[in-house]
Amino acid sequence: MVDENEIKGGAKEIGGKIKEAAGRAVGNERLEAEGEVDQVEGKTQKNYGKVKDAVKDQIS
After folding, report:
1. Which tens digits make up the pLDDT trace of 35-56?
2. Residues in domain CsbD-like (predicted)?
3. How many helices (H) does the chain have, and how many strands (E)?
4. Domain definitions of the chain by residue range
């Protein structure tokens, strides 16, 4: 079963990629950097969800 954090993290990671690309396209370094941060946060949340799900499976 997929954990809620995996879904939310994946969405944040994709949003970060879009934000980074938009920042790069318009030459806005701050927007580009925010996109990179969002990607890291999203990937971290997604991985947390995977670990949480794996632990849940091991306990069951």
Report:
1. 999 999 999 999 999 999 999 8
2. 5-57
3. 2, 0
4. 4-51
Q: Which two tokens stand for residue 45?
A: 């949340």
Structure letter (DSSP) for residue 3: -
What's the predicted TM-score (pTM) here? 0.88
Task: Measure Cα distances from 38 to 12, 46, 55, 56 in Å.
Answer: 6, 12, 26, 27
In 1-60, DSSP assigns E strands to none
Q: What is the pLDDT of residue 26?
A: 98
Angle at 28 between CA 7 and CA 8, to 5 degrees: 5
CB atoms within 10 A of CB 26: 9
Tell which residue, 23, 56, 28, has the closest CA to residue 39: 23
